[in-house]
Amino acid sequence: MSDKEAFYSKLKERLNNTTAFPTEYLYKFIVPSTGNQIKEIEGLFKDRLAKITTNISKTGKYTSVSVRVQLTSANEVILYYKKAEKIAGIISL
Fold first, then answer.
1. For the chain, how are helix, strand and coil distributed in percent, rounded to 5?
2. Is cis: bond before 22, omega within 30 of 0?
3. Residue 25 belongs to what H/E stretch?
4. Which residue ranges form the domains of the chain, and what is each CATH number?
5. What would you report as the CA-atom Rg of the chain, rounded to the nearest whole angstrom?
6. What is d(CA 54, CA 43) in angstroms, rounded to the nearest whole number?
7. pLDDT at site 2
């Protein structure tokens, strides 16, 4: 099992043990302020009623992106993390 697979397996177990689904889940990402990463994140959640907020760092190099979205399962939470990891320069918190 790869490190990434182990991480997602552990996350799924933790979510199932601590979260009652459906629930509003909070994703937090950090992306470079230059480029279109924020638009890409918005695109991931365009079909959901997600509340997306952004905050630019003091230096202006990075932007934090918070996404609140209603999800139905731990598998769905992980699905969006896997989609987001394909965005260049993204850091998931």
1. 40, 30, 30
2. yes
3. strand 23-32
4. 3-92 (3.30.70.260)
5. 14
6. 15
7. 85
CB 65 within 8 A of CB 39: no
Q: What is the pLDDT along the chain (93 residues), one digit of tens a residue?
A: 789 999 999 999 999 999 999 999 999 999 999 989 999 999 999 999 999 999 999 999 999 999 999 999 999 999 999 999 999 999 999
Give the model's pLDDT for residue 85: 95
* Nearest CA among 8, 78, 5, 80 for reference residue 50: 80
How is 34-74 classified by DSSP, letter by letter?
SSSHHHHHHHHTTTTT-EEEEEE-TTSSEEEEEEEEEES-H
Decide: 52 and 66 in contact? Cβ < 8 Å. Answer: yes
Contact 52, 45 (CB under 8 A): yes
Give 85's contacts (C-beta < 8 A, 6+ positions apart).
92
Cα 21 from Cα 72, distance rounded (Å): 5
